[in-house]
Structures are given as C-alpha cells and as structure tokens.
Design brief:
The protein is of the alpha/beta class. It contains 27 helices and 21 strands. The protein has two domains: 372 residues, TIM Barrel; 330 residues, TIM Barrel (Alpha-Beta Barrel), CATH 3.20.20. The chain has an eight-stranded parallel beta sheet with strand order 1-10-9-8-7-6-5-2. The radius of gyration is 26 Å and the shape is globular. The N and C termini lie far apart (86 Å).
Length: 762
C-alpha cells in the first residue's frame, strides 16, 4: 500500500506586498540598519513558513530564503568570493551585496538566467578561490524553523554538480577537481544537519535535465555516494525540475533515498512506463505546475497520480509542485480587479499548495473526498475556455495566410545598411541607450495616483510629457547620438503591452522576483492576441518633435512577451507567439508611418525559453526567428531595426541571433568582462552591434578609462564602423544622478576613442 505525503520545493521570498524588496532597498539607501533588515526579513520568512504549516504541507522547505539569490548564497557560504572582493569580510552582508551589485572599487559578478526561466542568478567565480565552509545556512534556517514554529523542515541546498557547472573561472576538464573541492564542505553541512535532527535534505540538481556526458554522470554518482556515506541517517532527496531528466536509468539508480521528477514539463511519465522506478526509493512527483499561474486540472492531476502509483512499486510517493514556487506570485487573494472568469482560473503559490493538499486527500481517501473541489475546478476551467477571450477568427485567418510564406526583409543587410547610414548620418561609434530611463519615486508615485484616480488622464499625460522633455534635453546636453523617450508611461516592458493588446489581462499584485530586489508582474495570456490601435506612437512622435536627433521607437519582441507572460496552458505557445508577432508588426508599421527611423524590438528573453534538452533547440529557434521576422520584416529598407538581448551564453545561439536579421543588436558584456566578444571573434558577424560597455545593474559609476577599456577590447574584434556604444541594459532602475554621471563618462569615452581613430585615418 503506497503512502502519500505532501511537499514543497521552495516558496516566494518577496512577500504578498513585496515586503522583502522594500526592506532590501531601504537598507541599501541607508534608511534602516542591518539589525532592522534582519528583523524585517526574519518576520517575513517565519510568516511564509507558518502559511505552509497551516496549509498542511508535510515537508516544508527551509533554506530557500535568500537576501538576493540562492546561487550567491551557496557561493558565499562556501567561501567562493570573487578575487576582487576577497579583502572584504566574507561574513559581512555588505560583502554579499557588493558581489551582487558592485561597489566603488569593483564591478559586480556576472548575472545570467537560471536555466530557462526569467530568474537571474549571480554566477560564482572560482578563480583564486579556496573553498571553505564560512556558514552553514541550511543549519541556521533549519534550527530557526524548528525552534520558532516547531517545523521539522526540509533543508534545500543547491547540489554540488549544478553549483560548479554554473560557475566560471575553470576549464571544462577541471570540473571533477572543483566538485571534489566542494564535496567535503557539503559533507560537513549534512553531518551538522544530521546532528540537529534533520530527516530529509533536498539537493537541487536541475543540471540533470541537460545533456551531461558519461563522465559527468559518473561524477554525479561518485558525489552522492560520498554524501550518503557521510550522513547515513539523513534521507537525501535528489531534486530535478524544469524538464524530465536526461539519462533517466542512471539517475534513478543514484545512491539517494528519493528522486524528485517534474511530471508537468518533459516526459517523466513515459520514462517510468518504459524503465520503471526503483522500489527502494521514494518518488517525489511534481504534479502541479510551479512555473505558471493557472489552476491545475484536478481531474487530470488525480489521473496522473493514479498512473504513477500503478507504474511504480515504491512504498511512498511525495506530491509536490513541479519546481520551486519562486517563479509565481504569492497569493491571488489580494486580486480584486480581475474579471471573475479569469480570477477563478488562477492559482498562485498559496493556491498551488492548497491544490497539492486537495490531491493528497484524494490520493489517500479517493476522489469522492474532493468531489466538490473537482466540480468547482472543472467549472472554472470551462468558463474560461468558453469565454469571449476565445476565439478571434480574424487573427486565425492572418495566421493561416503566413503559414507557408517566406518571411524576410525586402533586400539583404549590406544593401539596406548603406541606405540607413546615408539617411541617419551618424558619427563613427554612435552612442545611445537601451531604452528606459530612471523611473524615480516621483514617476512611480504619479503613476500610482493616476491609477487610483487621484489625478486625471490629462494631468498624468502632462506629467509624462514634462518628464520626457526633461530627459530629451539631458540626452541632448550629454551629447548622445540616438535618443530615447524614456518609457515613463510604462510600468514594465512586457506588462505595458499586456495592458494594451487584446487577449491579455494584468494583475495588481502578481509580482515575481526577476533579479535582486527587481520584481516584475507578468501579464496573463487568456485568449487570442490581437492589436486594435497604436500603442507607442504618440509618445515617440512627441519626443521626436523636441530634437533633431533620431529618437528610437521602443517595443518588446514577441518571444520576450511570450516568455515573460503567464500563458494559459490550453493555448499553443508558438501560435500565441505568432499572434503577438503579427500584433507587433502593426505597431512597427505605425511607427514607421509616423516617421520613426529607428525601431528597437527587444528580445532579452530569447535564450531563456530554450529547452534544457539541446535536441529540441532547432524547433525553438525556428519559431523564435519566424516570430521576430513576422514583427519586423515588412518595414522599408531605410528603417533600421534594432534588438537588445540580456545575460546569455551567446556562443550557443549565435546562428539564431544572426538569423533574426536585425540591423543592430545590443548585448550585455560588461559583467562578463568582455568574454562575449570571443563569440564575435570566432564568427564573421557582418551586422552592427553594441556590446554594453557598462553595467546598469550596479549603482557604481564607471570611470571613462574603464569604459574605454571595454570599448577597445571589443574593437580588437569588431570593426569600428559596426560598433555602437551603449549601456548593457535599460536604465529604469537607476537613480538620476548616477545615470547622468555614467552616461556622461560613456559619451566622453566614445568621443575620445572616436577622435583618436579619426586622427589615425588622416
């Protein structure tokens, strides 16, 4: 007889009203003391644990909390402090934040996406590092939960193979050696947890969803054999997520007590059908989607549980979300303005844990025990499916019309760039920014007043116009060559378009952590997406009237809008992506008709949607390229299309970037210390490019010399005629004073190099 228990893999750290974010930013501003920061975050952390306890979760995660990022936590706990910060106190919270955000003396560590999510982690740097256990975080949080709430928690730790694989500062052949350096520290953590009474410890190894070599798999086996021997009385749960594991047969035979598999993404059920599951291990089954916000199909989930139970002979099955709930908002209980049809179909973190408990009851007592919940769930899902959000026949016809059509610009790049250069008449090494400019407390406060109805539409529009005019003048005074309007009317680069396009809905408090204290509110795709009228044209045209320099039109691309939205699970993703692309095409053409010469269609999320299994990459890239071209290819040759991409391993996706056929791409390179330049060194990239020359995610102002070094490094590989000078991302989150100072240094650095280059040509 199988026994069932419930578990959670991780809980959102931000709080229902972003209390976590507010505490961090208050500390960074100097408004509260370190002690106050700890008090506030401890109160929130205990509240989060108490919620899970009250819902009835059996295995509650501890140690999933972070002051910034869980990968950074692991690095600092094990003494993996970047060389430039090693003179600082390794146990100081200020050292921790400096690694993530930089300080006056050192740039921040690199930041990139956590597998195929929009969560950014801080990349550990192992060069010149001697690993040591600085702090047993898991033990601290385990004891806290036990002493304060009587919770025998399940410590959550990033596994050693995933941790080292995600780190930098070593050669691939040195992987095993570096893992071996960290394993003794993991053993010590485990032994101390065992002494404190921990029953289960969750080791997150999402790297097992990727294509590992046989040698790497052997390393995984060696690592967990060693860890199991170090603490035989602690049950080790090897947790995977985001997709089904590669090399399933080897993974499920690893020397651990339980295996966590994602049954929402990937093919875990068929793997069990084909290869079975070990009788001597516990199966932790991810049966509720931890990455999306729509209610689970309870009947379908219950059927899945029954199939899993029939296919396995294990004595115990743990029911849990498919991954940490870090990737969804906290609760839908604070949403008061959504259409009831949509609201009833939503499930945020708290609701997902309630779904787990409902399914647990059915697994134990039979479906009759939850009959009322099953009927309510089915009714809510049917109401959305039959609502007016579905189906738009016009957009369906448009999709059919482009099904077999070749989508490309009217003439090749080399021909159209000549026309663009003649029309724009920009200097060598033109300077620009990525798009957004500082959204100060006044900007955000005025928007809040407008949304609450405290000021009129006319008053709000007047404020936005004044802010835009102010920053057009600042950009003119700084000497930037291509200007932006600043996006002061926009909340978020995806949510803003979600508010304007048909088929979307937006939440009030559906916040999710993106990086550090930066939170976003992904819009909801509830039906067919379509465009009714211009979204951005007025603001761009109004800004252009204030200057003779070109002002870029600023749009978010179809792949990013899709990847940064919560798409209803009944809607085919690539169909939705193409619907968004066709909507954006109308906006692009409206901008062009209004006289906008440069249109930037940002795709910062291009890489993050990649499947973990590389064999599925071609299909993803084909769809992404098609969508981007749908949105951009019908403009005139003289109209210059830009795109921007964030924090990715571009060497792996270079061909797809090229296939987008954008005239200019801008890419982050400041935090990676110029390493991305190597990609373009190895390829003959003919289009124009801006490698971000300073890091906007840090409050530090880079010197002219530092920026010049970044530019000169790139110019060793990239022809100056191809090269644009820009920050590495939008400036929305920065303060006005630091933004102006950094841009001034950037423009001066560009001028000095430009003048030197022109002098050499004479």
């Amino acid at each position: 007889m199988t026994t069932f228990i419930s578990s959670n893999l991780g809980y959102p750290r931000i709080g229902e009203k972003r209390e976590w974010k507010k505490a961090l930013e208050a500390y960074w501003r100097g408004d509260i003391t370190e002690s106050s920061l700890y008090d506030r975050t401890t109160e929130l952390r205990l509240k989060n644990l108490k919620k899970q306890q009250d819902i009835g979760i059996d295995l509650i995660p501890v140690g999933d909390f972070s002051f910034y990022d869980q990968v950074l936590d692991t690095a600092v706990s094990f003494g993996a402090i970047p060389k430039r910060f090693q003179q600082e106190d390794p146990q100081s919270i200020d050292t921790y934040f400096a690694i993530a955000r930089g300080n006056k003396g050192a740039v921040a560590a690199e930041m990139t996406k956590w597998f195929n999510t929009n969560y950014h982690y801080i990349v550990p740097e192992l060069e010149d590092v001697t690993p040591q256990l600085v702090e047993n975080r898991a033990l601290h949080y385990y004891k806290e939960a036990k002493e304060k709430l009587g919770i025998d928690g399940k410590p959550v730790i990033i596994g050693p193979v995933t941790f080292v694989k995600l780190s930098k500062g070593y050669q691939p052949e040195e992987l095993e050696g570096w893992v071996d350096k960290f394993v003794p520290l993991y053993k010590q953590v485990l032994q101390e947890l065992a002494e404190a009474g921990a029953s289960w410890v969750q080791f997150d190894e999402p790297i097992l969803g990727t294509n590992l070599s046989n040698r790497e798999l052997e390393l995984v086996e060696k690592v967990y054999q060693s860890l199991k021997e170090a603490a035989p009385n602690v049950k080790l749960l090897l947790q995977t997520y985001f997709e089904s594991v590669q090399n399933y047969k080897k993974i499920v035979e690893l020397p651990v007590d339980g295996i966590g598999l994602d049954f929402i993404h990937g093919d875990s059920l068929n793997l069990i059908k084909k290869f079975g599951f070990p009788q001597d291990k516990v199966l932790a089954a991810g049966i509720v989607n931890g990455r999306n916000v729509w209610s689970a199909d309870l009947e379908g989930a219950l059927s899945l549980i029954k199939q899993i139970d029939l296919l396995t002979e294990t004595d115990q099955i743990i029911l849990q979300p498919s991954c940490s709930l870090l990737h969804v908002p906290v609760t839908k209980q604070t949403e008061e303005k959504l259409d009831t049809v949509i609201l009833n179909g939503l499930s945020f973190a708290d609701e997902k844990l309630t779904e787990i408990q409902t399914l647990l009851k059915a697994a134990k007592e039979g479906s009759e025990a939850i009959q009322a919940q099953l009927e309510e769930n089915k009714s809510a899902r049917n109401a959305l499916e039959s609502s007016t959000y579905r189906k738009n026949e016009e957009i369906t016809r448009e999709l059919l019309s482009i099904e077999n059509k070749e989508i490309k610009r009217s003439i090749p790049f080399q021909e159209r760039i000549a026309k663009q250069r003649e029309k724009l008449n920009l200097p060598l090494l033109p300077t620009t920014t990525i798009g957004s400019l500082p959204q100060t407390a006044e900007v955000k406060g005025t928007r809040t007043k407008w949304r609450k109805g405290d000021i009129s539409n006319e008053e709000y529009a007047s404020f936005v116009e004044k802010e835009t005019a102010k920053w057009i003048q600042i950009q003119e005074d700084l000497g930037l060559d291509v200007l932006v309007h600043g996006e002061f009317e926009r909340t978020d680069m995806v949510e803003y378009f979600g508010e304007k396009l048909n088929g979307f809905a937006v939440t009030e408090f559906g916040w999710v952590q993106s990086y550090g204290s930066r939170c976003v509110k992904p819009p909801l795709v509830v039906g067919d997406v379509s465009w009714d009228e211009p979204i951005t044209v007025k603001e761009i045209v109004d800004a252009q009237k204030l200057t003779d320099k070109p002002v870029k039109g600023m749009l978010t691309g179809p792949v990013t809008i899709l990847n940064w939205s919560f798409v209803h699970e009944e809607l085919p993703r690539y169909t939705v992506q193409n619907q968004i692309a066709l909507s954006l095409e109308k906006e692009v053409l409206a901008l062009e008709k209004a006289g906008v010469q440069i249109i930037q269609v940002d795709e910062p999320a291009l890489r993050e949607g990649l499947p973990l299994d590389r064999l599925r990459w071609p299909e993803y890239f084909d769809a992404a390229v098609k969508a981007f071209r749908l949105a951009t290819s019908t403009v005139q040759p003289e109209t210059q299309i830009h795109t921007h991409m964030c924090y990715s391993e571009f060497g792996e996706i270079y061909e797809a970037i090229d296939e987008l056929d954008a005239d200019v791409i801008s890419i982050e390179t400041s935090r990676s210390h110029g390493e991305l330049v190597d990609t373009f060194e190895e390829n003959n990239y003919e289009k124009e490019i801006g490698l971000g020359v300073y890091d906007i995610h840090s409050p530090r102002v880079p010197s002219i010399e530092e920026i010049k070094q970044n530019i000169e490094r790139a110019l060793q590989t990239i022809d100056a005629k191809q090269f644009w000078i820009n920050p590495d991302c939008g400036l929305k989150t920065r303060q006005e004073e630091e933004t102006v100072a950094a841009l001034e240094n950037m423009v001066n650095a560009a001028k000095e190099i430009r003048e030197a280059r022109l002098a050499q040509q004479k």
